[in-house]
Design goal:
By secondary structure, the chain is mostly helical. The chain has 14 helices and no strands. The chain has a single domain, classed as Glycosyltransferase (Alpha/alpha barrel), CATH 1.50.10.20.
Amino acid sequence: MGSWSLPLLLMALAGASPPERPSDDNPPERQAHQAVQRGIGFLEKEGLAWMKKQQCASCHHIPLMVWALNEARGRGFQVDEKALGEVTSWALAEGNQDEVFPDLLNDKTSTETDYLGPLFMALGVGADKDRGPAVEWARRRLLSHAASQQAEDGSWDANRGGRPPVHGPRDVQTSWLLVALSSPAAAGEEEAPGKSRRAAAAGWLSRNPPDDSLQGLALRLLVQKRFGGSAGESKLLVESLLRRQGEDGGWGQTQAMKSDAFATGLALYVLSEHQAEGVTVAVRRARAFLIRTQRPDGSWPMNSRPAEPPGPGPARDLRPIRYVGTAWATMGLVRSSPRAFLPRS
């Protein structure tokens, strides 16, 4: 009888179809749920450690922790409410913000401007639908600061010269700004940054093609969904994104790079808002890729960019990019989950 069990054999003889067996490209949903919870655990532990040791929100650990955990809790996943509240309160405390986010008030003595940290923190806080007035005030302050660095032509180039993929080219950064200004949390705001900044950013993007990278395409598609755009252009962007999916089910940051958690998670995050032909299969394969490649500690492996030069020397600290990759993998799995598993407490 080979691998057939007696119940399956009886079903076959009776003309009934045996239940579908899980495949590598279609794992049971419980595995995705477990992967999300492991990812959340890693983000909580490492985020708290970064806050206590580094005392800096930067543009990776703290904003991405707040963002990922708010996305997860809003869809029924369990998060450490105490840890999320502690990190959020610390980062948003008015007395702390000047030190937590370097150059928040345009201190001319600072050697590195930090616009991405406030922007990503505003996005992360905006993902919390239950935020109170004090948190909302802080969110607007951070977003206003980030948006104030917009160029006269409508573009935005935060932390020029920073390492990709967190620091992308002008097209990617301008897309992030417009996503933040066009999010439901920002809808209806008339004050700064206001409608004029949104219009200026949208105008710049309309005159400049998307960056030839996964992030460039994904963010342009996200802008189309959030800000509004033609169905035809959205269809072309979706098709371009799907063509870049690798045989392993994941996406690479560029066409020359292997699939990783950052690119795959971001692609899932964006595609979860679209119902175009082929998206369902692509999403299923991408989720399977993330489930297969997650480490036991809940993180996902990531490589440094640009590649390290050969020769002796200390290895580059991969904690920031591993953390960012894990956050996006977690958010991608959360956003593409077909249902919430656990009720919110």
